Amino acid sequence: MLMLPAVLTHAQVGATLRLFRETLDRAAAAGSGEAAMLTVDGSTLEQFDSSALAVLLECQRMARAKGRAFAVQSLPKKLQELARLYGVDGLLQSV
User: Fold this and answer.
1) CA 55/CA 43 separation, integer angstroms
2) Is the per-residue pLDDT at 95 higher than 70?
3) Which of 17, 40, 45, 66 is the most buried (most CB within 10 A)?
């Protein structure tokens, strides 16, 4: 599972995507059942902009490219509203 940082704006995109890539690679190398579903948890996310949506969509793309399922959980209400506004809320599967 990847916990999103408290702040996820344009400045944090690169580091967050690197962390997700490392998490994905470790899970795949471990070969555990955990590797089949990769979940991003947004419960600690406090400050964000539309870059957070771009990060989530890219994380989903990377997971699927590795043959893994992807889900999000505990996204802040305002980020969910932003996803609806941009029309990408249906692309992000929630658990």
Assistant:
1) 15
2) no
3) 40
| In the block, residue with structure tokens 């400050």 | 47
The type of residue at 86 is Y
pTM of the model: 0.88
Q: Using CA atoms, how far apart are residues 68 and 62, in angstroms rounded to an integer? A: 9
If pLDDT is split at 50, 70 and 90, which confidence band does 93 have? Answer: confident
Residue 58 neighbours by CB under 8 Å, 6+ apart: 17
Interaxial angle between packed helices 51-65 and 13-30, expressed in degrees from 0 to 180 and rounded to the nearest 10: 20
Residue pair 42/6 in contact by the 8 Å Cβ criterion: no
Tokens describing residue 27: 């899970």
Distance of CA 62 to the CA centre of its chain: 10
Could you tell me whether strands 37-41 and 47-48 are parallel, antiparallel, or unpaired per DSSP bridges?
Answer: unpaired
Closest CA to 95 of 42, 24, 22: 42
